[in-house]
Amino acid sequence: MAERRAVVAGAGIGGLAAALALHRRGWRVTVLERAPEPREVGAGITLMANAVRGLDALDLGGEVRRLGRDGATGGLRSWDGRWLSRVDAAELERVLGTTALGVHRAALHRMLREALPAGTLWTGCEVRDADPTSGTVLGHRDGEPVELRADLVVGADGLRSALRTRLWPDTPPPAYSGSTAWRAAIRFDEPVPAAVSWGPGSEFGTVPLGDGQVYWYAAITARPGGHAADELAEVRERFGHWHDPVPALLAATRPDEVLRNDLYHLATPLPHYVRGRVALLGDAAHAMTPHLGQGACQAIEDAVTLGAVAGPTVDVPAALDAYDRLRRPRSQAIARAAARTARLGQELRHPVAIAARNAMLRLTPSRTALRGMARHADWHPPRPT
Ligand SMILES: Cc1cc2nc3c(=O)[nH]c(=O)nc-3n(C[C@H](O)[C@H](O)[C@H](O)COP(=O)(O)OP(=O)(O)OC[C@H]3O[C@@H](n4cnc5c(N)ncnc54)[C@H](O)[C@@H]3O)c2cc1C
Q1: N or C of the chain: less Cβ packing under 10 Å?
Q2: What average pLDDT does range 216-229 have in this prediction?
Q3: Does the pTM exceed 0.70?
């Protein structure tokens, strides 16, 4: 049988993981990336147990555990440092059977890239359209049109996916979630917990990355499009009086290390992730707010599932139908849960509502809290067909 070809639009974490999953199943894969250089913007990332399991299925579990930091204990706190709920990392690992990791995004991206055969990734190539019937992909590279024929096309082109806009024209564009976020990965030698702290309309999270590095992020409820001349000064102004180690982390951060993004999500869930030979994946399919730390984890689940259903001899429409059935309900439920977590956590502003939530969290038995945290991360890759 002739070698079958897959084209992936977008070389983010989702696109690279999908390319690898398909390559491992015998597909010849080309990844078309708009950016002139392969890169991943955005400090650190938390990979929950589901994503680590997904990377295990791609034979990258050992490598990602070597790159990341596991075993960080933490939980939920109030802005003044009071613990609302504690999570013991060893206990969480025991419940889920595998660990969660804090990883630098650049290291994760490099690991995925380097696992692909040479020549797979074409940078500077913007995808503009795909024909769901023939699998023809149209793009532009160095001012020249590019046309590729594929048996399977993966739209992993992120939040503002060109393929989603072309092939799902009735879907509303991503909606502003109501929050803006800052983040940085910095050198910091003191131990920090993997924790999230909530203040009125705001949150601050810390994730140890290992090797003396810490990833912090901060979010507030705000109008979209805000920018400060000095974003670090803005974060210090808003969070510099929070509990330890927040002031020390901000003091150890350089202005050029801080990245700011307004948070957008697909507020209207897609009715289908598949059209003909084209499947959407990652943020292109289900961009969610980061309040559960699951966006990239879900992209990795998508990628591993696609590889599992798309064996080298399967009928592509049937495989993609299975992909849609396996992925859409779960990823959309997690997107809804992320929005709910934002409403109960960072977005809550009324003092009475905050006091009631905090009291409820403090009264919740630790085993129940642990099960709640573990729920979304409890996923196993499907058996390859
Ligand atoms: C503040 C913040 C914190 C987060 N924290 C976490 C976390 O801790 N854990 C977690 O799991 N998730 C987290 N997320 C979510 C996570 O970052 C995303 O869900 C994930 O990166 C999506 O990956 P992706 O590959 O689908 O899309 P992207 O990373 O957006 O990649 C898309 C790629 O496609 C390229 N592209 C776009 N258009 C085209 C085109 N037309 N042609 C060719 N290429 C194109 C882009 O250049 C890009 O390289 C966070 C998000 C934010 C904003």
Answers
A1: N
A2: 97
A3: yes
Q: Distance between CA atoms of 350 and 274, rounded to whole angstroms? A: 42
Check if 210 has its Cβ closer than 6 Å to any atom of ligand 1: no
Chain mean pLDDT for the chain: 95
Average pLDDT over residues 197-225: 96
pLDDT value at 249 more than 90? yes
Cβ–ligand 1 distance for 358 under 6 Å, the answer no
Positive or negative, the CA dihedral 190, 195, 196, 198 is: negative
For 139-178, the pLDDT digits (tens) are: 999 889 999 999 999 999 999 999 999 999 999 999 999 9
- Distance from C-alpha of 73 to C-alpha of 206, rounded to nearest angstrom: 11
Residue 126 Cβ contacting ligand 1 at under 6 Å = yes
Residue 152 neighbours by CB under 8 Å, 6+ apart: 4, 5, 6, 7, 22, 27, 135, 277, 279, 310, 316, 319, 320
Ligand 1, atom 17, residue with closest C-alpha: 296
Q: For residue 234, what are the CA distances in angstroms to 134, 205, 231?
A: 51, 16, 5
Q: Is 295 helix (H, G, I), strand (E, B) or coil?
A: helix
Closest to 373 (Cα-Cα) out of 39, 175, 91, 126: 91
Count of CA atoms in the C-beta half-sphere (13 A) of 384: 16
Measured from the CB, is residue 155 less than 6 Å from ligand 1?
no
212 C-beta neighbours (distance < 10 Å), count: 11
The confidence score (pLDDT) of residue 41 equals 76
Q: Which of 323, 344, 358, 9 is nearest to 153 (CA)?
A: 9
